[in-house]
Amino acid sequence: MTPPREPHVATEATATSSDVPVVDPRTGAYDDATPWSGDAIFACAGEMAERMAAHPWDRNVLGPPAQWPPVLRTTVSMVLRSKYPMTLTWGEQFVMLYNDAYVPVLGEKHPDALGSPLAEQFPEIWDAIGPMQRAVLQGGEATWDENLPLVLERGDGPEECFFTFSYSPVPDGDQPGGVLAVLSMTTSEVLGARRLAILNDVGAVSASDPKTAAAAIAAALDRHPSELPGGRVWLSEDAAPVVAAAFGEPGPALEAPTPAVGPTILGAGRTAWLGLGGAHRPSHAVASPSQEQAADAGEDDSSALLELRLPELRPLDEAHRRFLDQLSQAVAQRLEAARAQELEAQRAATLSELNTAKTHFLSTMSHELRTPLTLLLGPLHDVLSGRVDVLDRAAVEQLNGQCQRLLGMVEDLLEISRSESGRLVAHPEAVDVDGLTAQLIEPLLEAGERAGLRMSRTFRGAGTCLLDVRLWENVVLNLVSNAVKYTLEGSVHVDLAMDDQLVLTVRDTGIGIPEAQQSLVFQRFHRVRAGEGRSIEGAGVGLAIVADAVAELGGEVSLESAPGVGTTVTVRLPVREAEAAPATAPTALRLAGVRAKALDLVPVEEPGPERRPAAGPAGPTLLVVDDNAAMRQHVASALGEVGRVLVAADGVEALEVLARGDVDLVVSDVMMPRLDGEGLVAAIRESPDRPDVPVILLSARAGSEAAISGLGRGADDYVAKPFSREELVARVRAHLELSSLRRERQRRRDRETMLAGVSHDMQTPLATIANALELLTSLGIPDLPPEITGTMTRSVASLLGLVAEFLDWSALSTGARVRVHLEDLEVPSLVADVAWPRGLELTTQVGAGARVRADALRVRRILANLATNAVRAGATRLWVGTDRDTDGLHVRVRDDGPGIPPEVLARLFQPWTTSQDTRGSGLGLYVSRESARAMGGDLTLVDTSSAGTTFDLRLTSGG
After folding, report:
1. End-to-end CA distance of the chain
2. Reported pTM
3. Where would I find the beta strands (DSSP E) of 404-555?
4. Using one digit for the tens of pLDDT, what is the confidence trace for 656-704?
């Protein structure tokens, strides 16, 4: 308000003069025009011109305008007519005269400031501007200040404002009579620049995770204490906000409120809470002295917050609110970007883990498939080569066991495939659970007893109920075989009880499972500390099959385990009463598979510790290391003609044998429990006694990377399974000779040079298996049941295709192409040599003399795959014809099946494509097309309908 003035003392003349206006106290207006209202200096538009014209100057120290000095009148006239903020302070009291543009500077001080001393209106800044005013009034030079900060009281509390202004003297005779201030209020520009700098600093933050981003954001905000004295960044943790970073002087720690809907400041606490809902959602600011006040305003869907202590001298005007909203969005964007980077890193890590799992799975499956194939090919090759005339019953039973093992693996993979594709469906039937379970586990109990374990079973209240036999067999066999496999000493107990639930409990005293991995054991391809088990063999799908089967049966499976104590797995299934008598028992084929599994776990008779050649000197000493007893026996038998053979079950046992005496060469499997082949090689190379002992690694791991890994650890050679007896013996003899040469040449380590030309072909001619089985059947062995050879033939044929498809897919998935061997071939012979499925009526129209340049084996596989697919789809007839055009020779295959479902057509040639009604790996057409393209041709679908399907195999014409 205007400071109190001395009361105007009017003379008698002035008191009675009709020229003195009377002010209406209610409106502040004059009841009549003042004597100077028509003065020319006020004759302009504007509020201040009217106010000056109506102001009672005769009661002011300046007096009536007519008495003002000419320079004062001129300056006031100029000030009123200027559009730029100006104020004129006159005389020793610095009486204020200002224009319309200056009114916003005054705030609530207007209009009382008109005609008042400057010091009375701005006491809060007089210490800053008073000396400058006096200096100019006393004859000093004009001043200039830019963006000068001044704290004003303009009606809403203290407020920091910024001004760019000049003080210029207004001469009145020889001395200045007043000071003219020409100014610009630059508060919005200064604060805008500061706030933009804050937003830029926040926008420059880059971090790999939200916590690091929060710390960087706090550091960026800490560089601007004038606008942000302090605060905290809150992040969500377990669905609740926690402080992730702080800066400046944030003040006392408060419980974070729920962000409010409106940007409202409550109370005088000057604490703002900004909701960080993400860059795609608006953020909100609210200052709250209590959580309840903030919660009253609403809730945001994010628990991430930015807590800010606002500067005391900044009003929360629209610009300030807009800045807070922009800041919350900027912070949210940086946090969201950091979260995106974190998720991308996690995704990359997950993809890396998946790639590792895929590589491990392919490596394991290669080992699991190639090992029994080696044991199949060896005896068959002996017959084909004439080394033996006929296989005895023991050899045939071994072949049958390996076929059963391969068939079991195929069934496991198909179970996983059915589960993944949603085709795993239970088919309940009346089952004598007690009898079925007893028959299933009997071979496994015997295997455990052979291993020295205490095996026991308890069946309580079990009887007849509705149950899917195949799924129940999967559950029982996998759980009991795992217990035997991972229990090296102690006991295994199987408990079966049936009341309102069917409860199967398998308890062992084995190696146990670490707590961190117990939640992973039912995941596909996950293996827990397999190196400590009885064998390293297995694809890591057993417990996944158990989990899938139990889920399909409507039950649940639980696990309790402790390392070094043992494991207990409990399966609970709902009991469905059966009205019909039980009529289901394990098939002979299934029981044969169980016996084969039991023999794999614990062989009936281990091979002797030593084998000598049939005649002649003892020769060199060879050490065969393999965890598979049948493979040990097979390799030892093959090497018996070379020298004295010792055997070991794993790397640890092999090192014990090496420590007892001289060994001239080691032949070792790669994948073994306790210490694998590569670890054995490393231990031998670090040994001070015989670091130069030649080591040949036998492995089913496909690809050059596996060979490089083994050779890189110091192995002398790397032989892929399946291998022939002659190949292995030749390699052993060669390395024995090389070892002798190295010793003669002072053990010069030139192994890599001598092995540079050694071929490491990953694929042997697997197609000979089928021919060998046909030859074996034609020999007419009296003691050889035809059903065994039939089973072997079908199993091997199925596995040959599956192995080939897996190997080709493995190569294609790494970016390589299918390997082909091109030669000129006669098409009629090619078609005639195809293993067409049984029960299919075949009609061929192949041009006589037609020739192509192709890979005979792959062409036969493509045609056989098309025929097999047709039979699986329900076709009974097949037509094969050829024609030639400029593109080459076309082999068209047409069937009378129901056609390809529309949902399959779009992904027909993609890997893992199968229909709901057919079984298979889903790789056949994918590998077939890539094989055709590798031969310079192509495989395409011509048409498909309810009347049948036609494929076109284009090949390059031959010469």
Report:
1. 114
2. 0.49
3. 429-432, 454-460, 464-467, 491-498, 501-508
4. 998 888 899 999 988 888 888 888 998 988 888 778 899 998 876 655 6
